[in-house]
Amino acid sequence: MLNPTDAAKRSIRWLYDEACRKAGRKLKQLGHGDRFATACPGPKLQAWVDAGMPVSPDSKPTSKPATSWTEDIMKDLPVLEVGDDCYDVKTLRANLFARGGLNEKVYGGAVGLRSWLE
Q: Could you give the CA distance from residue 88 to residue 81 in angstroms, rounded to a whole number?
């Protein structure tokens, strides 16, 4: 990559910031030319890494907080009414079970996902 675009730089910087966030600390910024003798990634990209991978604050892509698959399902469920006992209710019960949010005394003391889905 001899002439990296601004979009490529923003993407690289976002990946670096995300890796730091997941690691819970600031990681050392290295181009792979810093570890191994290589002609790539090219002098312009290596100079950008050496300069601290600067991007303008207003051009940084924003990331959405990661959600679990259960969160995604919960957001898609319709509004349920008292007494409903349809597929959506069973999905809700399964999600609550997966999250540890159902009391053992629910449904006559029956415990376990299978009994809640019946």
A: 11
Is residue 10 helix, strand or coil?
Answer: helix
Count of C-beta atoms within a 10 Å radius of residue 12:
19
pLDDT at 48 over 80: yes
- Which whole number is the average pLDDT over 37-54? 79
102: left (phi over 0), alpha (psi -120 to 50) or beta: beta
Residue 116: the pLDDT is 53
The whole-angstrom separation of Cα 61 and Cα 48 is: 18
Mean pLDDT of the region 68-77: 70
Reference 95, options 65, 71, 67; nearest CA is 71
Query: What pLDDT was estimated at residue 103?
Result: 60
Q: Please, what is the average pLDDT of the chain?
A: 73
3-state secondary structure of 103: coil
Instruction: Give the distance, in angstroms, between the CA of residue 47 and the centroid of all CA atoms in the same chain.
Output: 30
Q: Are 106 and 99 in contact (CB under 8 A)?
A: no
What span, in angstroms and rounded, lies between the C-alpha atoms of 111 and 108? 9
